[in-house]
Amino acid sequence: MVTGDISAYAEFFENAPLPMFLTRPDGRILDANVAACRLFGYTRDELMALGRQAVVDPSDPRLAVALEHRRHTGRFRGPLTMKRKDGSRLEVELASDVYTEEGGLQRTSMVVLSLAAVEGDPRVVPVCSYCHRARVAPDDWQSLESYVATRLGHRISHGICPGCYEKYIIPQL
User: Fold this and answer.
1) Which residue has the higher pLDDT, 133 or 38?
2) How far apart are CA 109 and CA 95, in angstroms?
3) Helix, strand, or coil here: 129?
4) pLDDT band at 160; cut points 50, 70, 90
């Protein structure tokens, strides 16, 4: 357990640049920071009253898998579709961990990395976690090789790093 001034942790949570939630495994939102309220378009009180269903897209088939994975392992890391108050959807990378507080109650921490939040930063390329295609527009994805060639004027060559050679190639030999 980390010790220190609790107000410093509260300040960190409130002013963190990434959207963060303190929740319960059942979906209740106990707190949301300023970045979360800004991204999703709700006030803190609205989020706390509405719970997880206000921000997760129930039609995303990955949601049930993510919740089940977190239930079994205590954590989830991966892409999910979330929704804003205005109904618009956004693709995010979500990190969520379950922990038990001193009183014995389970809580979860959730940190959201929104592709929309980094879109304006030319140093960040949104890349699909599964197929590794780069997003060039909200509904337009292209191969990373094509993206690099058209945007940066560079070509990509492929090879095998030493770690992957050890892990994948040697066992096949």
Assistant:
1) 38
2) 8
3) coil
4) confident
Alpha helices in the chain (DSSP H): 6-15, 34-40, 44-50, 62-73, 115-118, 144-152, 162-164, 170-172
Q: What SS3 class is residue 125?
A: coil
How far is the CA of 82 from the CAs of 36, 63, 87, 102, in angstroms? 12, 10, 10, 31
* Cα 75 to Cα 62: distance, rounded to the nearest angstrom: 14
What pTM value is reported for the model?
0.64
Whole-number pLDDT of residue 1? 47
pLDDT tens-digit map of 12-32: 888 888 899 999 999 999 999
CA nearest to 82, candidates 51, 53, 48: 53
Stretch(es) of the chain classified as CATH 3.30.450.20: 6-123
CA–CA dist 140, 114 (Å, integer): 17
- Tell me which CATH code domain 6-123 carries: 3.30.450.20
